[in-house]
Design goal:
The complex is a heterotrimer of chains A (389), B (394) and C (158). Chain A folds into two domains: 8-123 and 212-227, 3-Layer(aba) Sandwich (Peroxisomal Thiolase, Chain A, domain 1); 140-203 and 236-383, Peroxisomal Thiolase, Chain A, domain 1 (3-Layer(aba) Sandwich), CATH 3.40.47.10. In chain A, the strands form two sheets. Chain A has a nine-stranded mixed β-sheet. Chain A is built from 15 helices and eleven strands. Chain A is globular and about 55 Å long. In chain A, strand 10 (365-372) and strand 11 (376-383) form a beta hairpin. The relative contact order of chain A is 0.20. With 389 residues, chain A is an alpha/beta fold. Chain B is α/β, with parallel strands linked by helices. Chain B has a domain at 5-120 and 215-228: Thiolase/Chalcone synthase (Peroxisomal Thiolase, Chain A, domain 1), CATH 3.40.47.10. Chain B is built from 13 helices and eleven strands. In chain B, the strands form two sheets. Chain B has a nine-stranded mixed β-sheet, with helices on both faces. Chain B has a two-stranded antiparallel ribbon with strand order 5-6. The N and C termini of chain B lie close together (6 Å). Chain C folds into two domains: 24-75, no CATH class; 76-158, OB fold (Dihydrolipoamide Acetyltransferase, E2P) (Beta Barrel), CATH 2.40.50. In chain C, 7% of the residues lie in helices and 34% in strands. Chain C is built from one helix and ten strands. In chain C, strand 7 and strand 8 form a beta hairpin. The chains are: A alpha/beta (389), B alpha/beta (394), C mainly beta (158).
Chain lengths: 389, 394, 158
Amino acid sequence: MTKRTRNVAISGIGQTRHRGHREDINMVELVAEAVEEVLADSKMDLKDIDCIVHGNMELFEGVHQPDMWHVLGDGAYGKAGFRITTGGTTGATIVCSADHLVASGMYDSVLAIGWEKQEEGMTTTGITNMADPLWEREVQTGAITGTHGVMMMNKFGEPANQAAAELRVLMADNARKNYKAHLRIEITRQDVLESRVLAWPLRLLHMCPESNGACAILFVSEELAKKLPQKPVWMHDHVTVHRQETFDLVNMGDLDTHGEAARVLYARNGIVDPIKQIGVFEMYDPQSWWALDWVGKFLMLENGEQIDMVLNGDFAIDGRFPLNPSGGVVSSNPIGATAIIRVAEAALQIRGNAGEHQVPKDVELAMSTGFGGTFWTVLHLLGAEKPDK
Amino acid sequence: MLRNVAIVSAHQTKFEENKADERFQEMCYPLVRRCLDDTGLDFIPGRGIDFAVTCSDDFFDQRTISDGPMGDLVGTGRWGGEEKVACDGAEAIQYAAAGIASGHYDIVIVLAHGKESQVDSRNIVTFHAFEPFYTRFLGMDYTQALGLQAESYINRWGVTEKQLAKVAVRAAKNGAKNPNAQRTGKIKVDDVIKSKAVVSPIKELDLYPVSDGAVCMILAEEKKARVITDKPVWITGYGNCYDSYYLGDRNLYESMSLKKAAWSAYRIAGITDPMEEFDVAEISVQATYQEPLWYEGLGLVEPGKGMELFESGETDMGGRLPVNPSGGQLCGNPLLLSGIVRGAEAFYQLRGEAKGYQVKDADRALVHGTAGPAGQFHTVLVLENDKAQGGVKS
Amino acid sequence: MGTKTDKEGREIVEIRYEMAIPGTFATGPIMGHMLNKLKDKELWGNRCGKCGNVLFPPKIVCPKCFEEPTEWVKLDEWGYIATFDVVHFPTVNPLTGIMREVPYTTLIVALPNGGGFFHFCLEHDPEKLAPGKRVVPVWKEEREARPSDLEGWVLAED
């Protein structure tokens, strides 16, 4: 188990500029923008791509089986394809899918496309719809909750509040260097702390936006990667950890899929000191309080050390452990694409061509996560070198 | 596929028009138990089931992330993982096989469910599969798409409604022997012709009925498969393909995507003459006209000769290549499920476990699933038992 | 609303829709029994025979143990606030299509013998609420075996 059958490389990346409003195009055209970019980036001809993996959350846009319509934009006409959808983790899952499909030998090239035309639906209502209609749906309010913030405040006090705000400022600073990001705002810690309360202590500026966007990544076999111009980024490993359908909300520790995924991934890949060994981490951060909590869990920090790390600037692009140089989910969130954007951004960092938001060092290993469902985590490990088989 | 993968267990519910007394969980849980009992497996990554692939539709379920409720049933309550295929069940089988062949997992459980009865009208759901700028204003839905394709097919090849009715008669007849089939029995051509008109030329008995049900399967890599069962069913060929979306962009009386999917699967399995080399076929027929049309797409016969093949008796029970000994989707399987029901049926056939409707010496099976409007997307799988050609191909 | 135009100055055409897919959810014997008991103003969960946890809402299988619960358990008629949220952000209830009125308060109520679950808090003043405070349920006058039979929770009188 988890002995990779053959190597898989990322040889092409494309993403749209994520925006709040894209009324100028329909969803198929949105997907096509990302596909055009990945084809240009990889120099691969569409006719040579074997298979398309397509994912989003269909109840947002109200289109049933959108992969059928989207053959017009994703190039799947006449090709093999898979539709894989797992809620917020979809983007990360379709990367797992593409990895499986190439590693297995089934296909030599797979194009994974995640997308969401978020403005064409009601996001929070769509998310509320994931609750059981027989009990929770009546009460659920999408993903807008302050409970994690309350927990962190109870545990760490005001420094947590400051750190969550500071983390948000860092994300904004990074996003301004990433022209693909949606929210590219200039804010201060004070702005965050004074923004409108959504569900205390969660404030407007802590929360991710609703974005329209698409992201496509081309996965190829080792042989094919040799023929393509971009530096290959190698798929090392991934872990998917889910939880119960309705968890015991009182025992919060039970939700730690982040820590569990990290433990499994690190053990399998010889990572004993993630802060030293992982060069960059693109973490799925739908809101700053969750981000503050989860980065600690992924880094196996038990006493809130990440709070000091934030306040010391360790997570900055030129810091000890760069976190979300892209600006993160809190800057761009086209849900079906969000998790694949994390993989794309991690891959760009390894390649060294992320542009203005490139971390100023050689990145050997990068990690990215997807989040969604009932606290599910999908964790990816990518490398500049091929994994040891 | 660089690793050999087998199906080692498969169970399905009886399909019914309205399982009013069961949620998805009640339909699925007993099947998971039966698969675990068969195989002696538990949800322990590394020493049991490593992962789960589910198959369901958020629209039909009226639930965002419709795999959510399935998690508890497939071990994710114990930190396991799961991924959903939101397309026909045959694709879910192929996808689970990819996960194993990739080396990432050794044993994967596949759980598919659907309840067409939950929504007041399945046509309102599939209406939403049509784009909102033009086709929705025409009031299109998948049933109407079937009607357009049926008209196109019968006009192109001069097939009559009476001939198509025979497809329904045989499906019901075969299904009567299958304890899980929903709508079966002794019907006559006249019954089909006189049944309520749905969308010309399709009448009620020409069309698969509204249906609820679920299927569970376990797939395993070779070594573990041989420990779990002495009758593994190998996936030796696979292929799927998308056709164009707008119905006017293709000739509905033929199927490029089925042909491509089929020949991909045949090529991988080393098959050159499907009519000759398969012992049994389970194909997804949503409306009677699809039987002869899919025969042509699958390369069992040349274009235009599908009805001729059907009428020859060669695809009857006892014929050269029995098609749908289970009765098929025409007896009733919800949208998205037929491909995996077909897979389960082929699994029973290849193990000699299709009691009452067993095809003699069935060693190699053709499995087919379809999705999208008027068969836009097809998946074809080749399944073989150990006897077929003396062993395993991949 | 003004006319929207794209980068080239062409008028953008948008098509509005409202999606309604009517249907009927089956409840099955487990949730069905729990919902029926709401008519009697009672909350019932089921207990896993292996780990002893009471599952509420009741489940077909214990997610931790993968064992079927062995007995029904009537939950206490009071609980503690584990945490609460005063929600200021209005959203549409997907079951009714109606926009929720804000602010409203949700809480996670911890039942002494039944874990914790989300529900509505009918006390809206955050000054009065705190984790650990006792709350009791408020039932609707007319009950129909629906989740809404339980209107919400209020602070227990001392």
